[in-house]
C-alpha cells in the first residue's frame, strides 16, 4: 500500500522513511529498465543484419559484433547485479528491526553496522556503485576472450546468398571471424564466426 501511495501522493499515509526507501528502490528500477532497454536496442541493430547482407562481411561489422557481445554481457550483468542488490536492500529494510532472535539481530548488526541505513539514498548509491563495479570486473575477462581474425583471402559468397542483395555467382568476399586468442588456454582454436 505504501508503494502505491508513494506513486500517487508522495506524502499520504506513509512515514517519510518508507517513502525514502521506495524512492531509493525506484532508482534501481530506473537503472534496470535503462540497462534492459539498451540491450534490446543493441539487439535490434544486431539482428537487423542478416547473413547475406553486404555489411555482414565487412571489418566494421565484425568489430560491431565483438563490441556488441562485450557490451551486452556487461550491461546485462549490471542489470542482474542491480536486481540482486535491490533485493538485498529490501531484505535489510524489511528485516532490520523486526528480528526477534538475538543471534540473528547480533549477526545483522555486526555485518551491517558500518553500512548506511538501508532506507537512505547513500545505501542505494553504495549498492548501485557496487553492482556496477562487480559487473565491470566480471566482464573484463569476456572483453579479452575473443579477437578479430582476418586471413586476407577472398572467398566465394555462400550459395544461399546468391540472388539476395544483388549477390551473383562468382562474387568474392573477404572473410573475417572472431576467435579465441592464442594465449587463451583452451582446446578450441577454430574460428567461431566466419
Strand content: 5-15%
Distance between the termini: 55 Å
Low-confidence stretches: 1-16, 97-103
What's the helix count? 5
Which descriptor suits the 3D outline? elongated
The share of residues in helices is 55-70%
Q: Strand-and-helix sequence, N→C? A: HHHHHEE
What is Rg? 25 Å
Q: How many structural domains does the protein architecture include?
A: 1
Mean pLDDT across residues: 75
Structural class: mainly alpha
Tell me about the biggest sheet? 2 strands, antiparallel
User: What is the count of β-strands?
Assistant: 2
Describe the structure.
The protein is mainly α and 194 residues long. The protein has one domain. It is built from 5 helices and 2 strands; from the N terminus they run αααααββ. The chain has a two-stranded antiparallel sheet with strand order 1-2. The longest helix has 37 residues, at 59-95. The protein starts with a helix and ends in a 15-residue tail after the last strand. Mean pLDDT is 75; it is low at 1-16 and 97-103.
